[in-house]
Predict the structure of Acryloyl-CoA reductase (NADH).
Amino acid sequence: MDFNLSDEQSMLKDGVERFIQQEYGFEARREIAASEEGFSRERWQSYAELGWLGLTLPEDVGGLACSFVETAVVMQAFGRGMVLEPVLQTAVLCATIVDRSGSEIQRQALLPAVIEGRLLLALADSEAGSRFKLGCVTHTSARKTQGGYLLSGAKTLVIAGGSADQLLVTARLDDSAEGPAIFVVDRRAAGVSCRTYRLLDGSRAADIEFRNVELDESALLSAPATAPELLDTATGLATLASVAEILGVMEAVMDITADYIKARVQFGQPIGKFQALQHRMAEMFVAVEETRSMLYCGIAHLDRPATERSRAISAAKAVAGRASRFVCAQGIQLHGGMGMTEEYQVGHYFRKMTMMEKMFGDIDFHLARFAAKH
């Protein structure tokens, strides 16, 4: 695999990074985080106009049919900017589920709207006590009726669930033991109630309850026979995209910390001249490059058999989680007391890292998953 970016990929990288520098400064981000939805609809529309919401989606729905590398490039830059818009959830996780579901009706109805920035999707899968399990249907079920389905249950920690237009909901179908089914549900439908709350990094999530929600037959996106594999594939891609985002967070912390220790003077000289601090920066650099290598490894395994692909993705997520903890903690420590203040950005990167490390499974989860698939 050639790890050098093509000319087009380099142009994309430069464009995204320039956009983040000009349009997503730290103070602008703080204002966005304090807003009611926790993200900017204006920025979301900009991403759509720039084509970033349809990078890997096929051309027949208006996408650009790019490789996963382009997604990784964008997510890495988004990590540097601590971007709050739910691009990962809508344009990677949910869009992949819809695209590979086999439902042509839902593909044509949902994906062009996602690409154009007119539609936000959220996956409602997690339930109370489910931890990082996929296909959680203990408390959510759908009963077949004469005209469609009747959905009841509750989902927790639905990222951007309060702002989503449509929800992809996993549910047990007619008390079947085969596995989960996936339904498309309008968040504003009768019987759907939503309680939103703020997460550690300033973004929003929601707990959603479904009380006898009436769905028509076309709402069934994926049957129990195909849904588990579909969820696993889409979540794997989203997990790898989150590794790219974590890498961007780490790179930003490295740059901020390097600038600080060059400017901070103690005992008549910049503290960056002290050998002990240079050693710490070197260790941080090694951790960043380890994560970059594991990201590349994960991308190289995307076309491999499912077991090999899952192991590579879990390895990348585990390494990224451990490395980001170290880099962000060292960044705060090298800043001293300033690193803990609300007004300074390095502490916000630490919060972003903490949330990203838990998303799609933490270090222990992915180490166990890696060992189980050996």
Remarks:
- The mean pLDDT is 93.
